[in-house]
TrEMBL record:
InterPro entries: DNA-binding_RecF, DNA-binding_RecF_CS, P-loop_NTPase, RecF/RecN/SMC_N, RecF_2
Protein name stated in the entry: DNA replication and repair protein RecF
Keyword annotations: ATP-binding, Cytoplasm, DNA damage, DNA repair, DNA replication, DNA-binding, Nucleotide-binding, SOS response
Domain RecF/RecN/SMC N-terminal: 4-334
Biological role: The RecF protein is involved in DNA metabolism; it is required for DNA replication and normal SOS inducibility. RecF binds preferentially to single-stranded, linear DNA. It also seems to bind ATP.
NCBIfam families per UniProt: recf
Keyword presence, Lipoprotein: no
Gene: recF
Binding positions (ATP): 30-37
């Protein structure tokens, strides 16, 4: 998948920006605060429906602007062209796919695949479990069509059970039981999907991990489903009713799942330095992109925000070498062209005061 055009209005400091990126590596250079990261953010919004930067969707809107929009033309591996859009006006978000104003956000995200390595990427390793669940679910959303239905089914049942738990008093078991059965059935299915996905993505991650962190030895990953598997989820939900009632929400299930990484010479995440966490996250993101390419026949767009600040020269050269040899579109930002890309065939763009032009 490749962006053939990207138009951005009302996103942070960007307004009236139109970019025609090259099919290979695109480098956006400019001073700090110029809007470079927001170009990557626009591409990511179309793929995830949210930003990779901290904060709510409200802060995306340019100060004083009444609306925000990101439009793109995306060329797929089969040669087809998709016209995608995401806009916000008056607090309401709207997705478009090929001009259809009734398209769901899910339909939009399925047409656009972007992975991003940025200053906050180490949260995939060191941050909350939310980050790791999003990593898994985004990957499956693009390659496992049955997952989406089970995820929606689970979310609906979870919402209903939580509503009953908050009503006060002890809910009638006959009201809880249907939703718990639904929750358990969808939850077990989601867990199966996630485990299968991990079994396929880990070999891809290992292929990159051995290059970025060879000193740590063999890499492994452990998945925890969100409940004690000595009992099935249905029985666990019944057993946890009283505790969940006191807390007002469901405390077990795939929405509490997590995974942890381990190395032969660093068995705990706490053994990793911040730099090692970043490299580990980079390998996980590239591994996910590689699996996506294997299963979908095309690489997602790869964004590398502030590459020169996030990686040393050796690892910059390594990641550039990995991407130059593949049919993948890349967006890179920096205050100047990263040293690893000097002399390489790149399309250069200059960003300043929210304006983007040829470099």
């Amino acid at each position: 998948m490749k962006f053939e055009s990207l138009r951005i209005s009302g996103l942070r400091c960007l307004d009236g920006v139109a970019v025609t990126p090259a099919a290979g590596i695109n480098v956006f250079v400019g001073p700090n605060g110029a809007g470079k990261t927001s170009v990557l953010e626009a591409a990511y919004l179309l793929s995830h429906g949210r930003s990779f930067r901290a904060g709510s969707r409200d802060v995306l809107l340019k100060r004083g602007a009444g609306s925000l929009s990101v439009y793109a033309e995306v060329r797929k591996a089969d040669g087809s062209l998709r016209r995608l859009g995401l806009g916000r006006e008056g607090g309401r978000w709207q997705a478009r796919v090929d001009g259809d104003p009734t398209a769901s956000l899910g339909a939009l995200v399925q047409e656009c695949a972007v992975v991003c390595f940025e200053p906050g990427s180490h949260d995939l390793i060191a941050g909350s479990s939310d980050e790791r669940r999003r990593y898994l679910d985004w990957g499956m959303f693009h390659v496992e069509h049955g997952f989406v239905g089970q995820w929606r089914r689970y979310q609906r049942a979870l919402k209903q059970r939580n509503t009953l738990l908050r009503q006060g008093g002890y809910p009638d078991p006959s009201l809880l039981e249907p939703w718990e059965m639904e929750l358990a059935a969808a939850g077990e299915s989601i867990t199966t999907y996630r485990r299968d996905y991990l079994s396929r993505v880990v070999p891809h991650i290992q292929g990159f991990m051995g290059n970025v962190l060879p000193e740590l030895g063999a890499f492994s990953l452990r998945y925890r489903p969100g409940w004690d598997e000595s009992s099935d989820l249905a029985a666990t939900l019944v057993e946890r009713r009283q505790r969940d009632l006191s807390r007002g929400h469901t405390t077990v299930g795939p929405h509490r799942a997590d995974f942890s990484v381990a190395f032969e010479h660093a068995p705990l995440r706490e053994h990793l330095s911040r730099g090692q966490e970043k490299l580990c996250a980079l390998a996980c993101l590239l591994g996910q992109a590689s699996l996506h390419a294997e299963l979908r026949g095309e690489w997602p767009v790869v964004c590398l925000d502030d590459l020169a600040s996030e990686l040393d020269r050796t690892h910059q050269e390594w990641v550039v070498g990995q991407l130059l040899g593949r049919d993948v579109q890349v967006f890179v930002t920096g205050t100047e062209v990263p040293s690893a890309l000097v002399g390489q065939p790149v399309a250069l763009f200059h960003v300043e005061h929210g304006l983007v032009g040829p470099g």
